[in-house]
Amino acid sequence: MNRHQLVSGLSWSLHRRGSRLGSRRWLSHQQPTRATGEASHNINNAGNASTGNGSRGWGAAAVGGAMGIIGFGAGVLLAKTGGDIPKPKPDSSSRPHYANRAEMMHAAEEIAQVLGQDAVSYDADVLEHHGHSDWSTSNSPERAVAVVYPKSTEDVSAIARICNRRNVPMVPFGAGSSVEGNFSQPHSGICVDFSFMDKILAFHPDDLDVVVQPGVNWVDLNKHIASSGLFAPMDPSPTATVGGMVSTNCSGTNAFRYGTMKDWVLNLTVVLADGTVIKTRRRPRKTSAGYNLTSLFVGAEGTLGMVTEVTLKLAPIPQDTSVAVVPFPTIRDAAAAATTLIRSGIPLAALEIMDEKQMAILNANGSPAVRKRRWAEQPTLFLKFSGTTEGIQSDIARTASLIQSVQPQAPLHFARTKQEEHDLWAARKESLFTMTSMRPAGHEMWSTDVAVPISRLAEIIDWSKRECGRLGIFASVIGHVGDGNFHVAMMYDPRDAEQKAAVGRCVHRMMQMALEMEGTVSGEHAIGIGKKECLREELGEETIAVMRRLKRAVDPKWVMNPGKVFD
Ligand SMILES: Cc1cc2nc3c(=O)[nH]c(=O)nc-3n(C[C@H](O)[C@H](O)[C@H](O)COP(=O)(O)OP(=O)(O)OC[C@H]3O[C@@H](n4cnc5c(N)ncnc54)[C@H](O)[C@@H]3O)c2cc1C
C-alpha cells in the first residue's frame, strides 16, 4: 500500500480493518454479517436484561462495591452521619491485587471454554498489535496474556464474570486509534476486542437514531445509512469504532457545529466488571429520569465497564457544503481571525487551523489531490460551510467581509467546484498522515491536545509555537480552532534522552499554561496513561477522589482497564 492510498481515509480504514481481520485468520467463525433495517434483536428488552449467574442489579453492584472496600464504606457512613467526605486514602490497603500470569492464563482458558477456542488468541503478533500504538508516546511495555473476541453482550458478561472472579484486568479494544495509551495493558490481563460486535442492530430513521454494537466503524456506518439522508457527525480517525469513540468522548473537525460524542449518545448498554448488564436510559430524545449514567460512561475509557450497545442520535446530511481557505501573516493573526468568526455567530460547519510548517509539508508531500494547488506556506484557516445553497452563499459573503475587516490583505479562496472543495478539505484531513509519513526513521511524534476558552486561543497558540521553537526540533500546530482545541505535533528522537526529556517538559508547560487559562489538558484524546498527573492538576485531588469512589462502586476490584485516567 502506498502513502497516497494510506492517506485516503476510507482505504486506510479498510486497510486497518483488513489487517485486524488478517491477524485473526485463525478464527473459524464467519465474520458476522451486518443487519440492515430493523434488527431481530429487541433492544428495548436490554434495559431489564441481566444475564448469567453473576448478574446482579446496579444497586447490588454498588452495595457490593461499598462492602468490598473499607474506605468506601467508611465514606458512606460519614456521609450518613453528616460528616465531611473523607480525604482519599492513597494507602496500600486500597491498592488492587491482580492475578499472576498463570491465573490470567487460566481465565483465558475458561473464557475459551465458554466462548469457543477460536474466540481467544495468544498469538504474539496479535498481542503486540493490541498492546502498542505507533500513534502514541504513552505505550506500556506490558502485554495482555490473551485477546478475546466476544460476539454478544452475553459473551462480554461471561468474560467479565470470569475475569472479575479471578482478579484479572480487562482492557477493552476498539480500533486502537487512541493516542494516550488508552488501551495499553500496564497490568497485563485480558484484552477484549470488539471487532466481531460490528452489527447495526436497529435503524430508526424517523426517530433520527441508530442502535449499534461497539465494533461498528463510523465511516462504514455513515456509508450504510447515507441513503436515508442521515449521518453520525463525529469524525475522529477513519478507523475508529463507536465503542472507542464513546469511551474517549471523541470529536473531530465536525465538533464546532455538532458538539462532541457525548451529545450524540442516547443510551448505552454496559457490562460492569462483575458481569452485570445495565442500560443507562431508554430511547427518547430527552429525559429527566434519574441520574445521567450515560454521561458517566461516555469518556470513561473503559474504566467503568464495557459498552456493548450504543444508541446514537443522527443528524440530517446538510443539503450543500462549501470550503474556503485563508492564509494569514502570523499564527496569532489566524487565531484572532478565528475568534472573530466564532463570535460573529456565522454557523460554520468547521473551523480548523494549520501552521506554516504543515502547509509546507502539503506542498512537499501532499497527495496528488492536495498538490493540485501551490499552498501559501503561512498559517492558514480552513473553513467549512454547510446548510442550504442560499444560506451558504450568505454565510460566505459575511465571512469574506469579516475577514477583510480584520485582515484586509488576507487572500480568501473559496472552492469553485465540488472537486475543488474535496481537494481543499483533503489537505486538512490528510495532514496528520502526511506529517507522519515524513517522520525520520526511529523518530516519534508527541502530540499535545489542549483546549482553552476561545478568547485565550491566539495567546496560547502563539506562546506554544515560541516554546516549541526553542527545542530546535520539528514542531507544528494543527487544530480544531473553532473549539479552542489544538494539537502541537513534535518529532523527536526517543534514543536521545535529553531531547525526549526536553519535549516532555515542553508538553507539560503547555498543559500548565492551558490550565492557567482555565483550559483542559485533553480536548478530545482523553487521559489514558499519558495524562494522569495532568488530570490531577486540572481537577484537584478532591474531584479525583469522587471519581475514585464512583469507580469503586461499580468496579470494587479495580479490574476494568486499570492504570488509566487515575490510580
Ligand atoms: C490519524 C488519527 C486521527 C485522529 N483524529 C482524531 C480527531 O480528530 N478527534 C478525536 O477525538 N480523536 C482523534 N483521534 C483519536 C482516536 O481516533 C479516538 O480517540 C477514537 O475515539 C478511538 O477509537 P478506537 O475505536 O480506535 O478506540 P480504541 O483506541 O481501541 O480505544 C479507546 C479507549 O476506549 C476503550 N474502549 C474501546 N472500546 C470500548 C468498549 N466497547 N467499551 C468500553 N471501552 C472501550 C479502550 O479501552 C480505550 O480506553 C485520531 C487518531 C488518529 C490515529
Automatic annotation (TrEMBL):
Q: Which cofactor does it need?
A: FAD
For this protein, what is the EC number? Answer: 1.1.2.4
Q: Keyword Nucleus, does the record have it?
A: no
Q: Cite the record's Low complexity compositional bias ranges.
A: 44-54
Q: Which Pfam families match?
A: FAD-oxidase_C, FAD_binding_4
PROSITE patterns noted in UniProt:
FAD_PCMH (PS51387)
A single GO BP term for this record reads: lactate catabolic process
Q: Which reaction does it catalyse?
A: (R)-lactate + 2 Fe(III)-[cytochrome c] = 2 Fe(II)-[cytochrome c] + pyruvate + 2 H(+)
User: Which positions fall inside the FAD-binding PCMH-type domain?
Assistant: 140-317
Family, per the entry? Belongs to the FAD-binding oxidoreductase/transferase type 4 family.
The protein's matches in PANTHER family, at most eight in alphabetical order, are given as: D-LACTATE DEHYDROGENASE, DEHYDROGENASE (CYTOCHROME), PUTATIVE (AFU_ORTHOLOGUE AFUA_1G17520)-RELATED
Protein name in UniProt: D-lactate dehydrogenase (cytochrome)
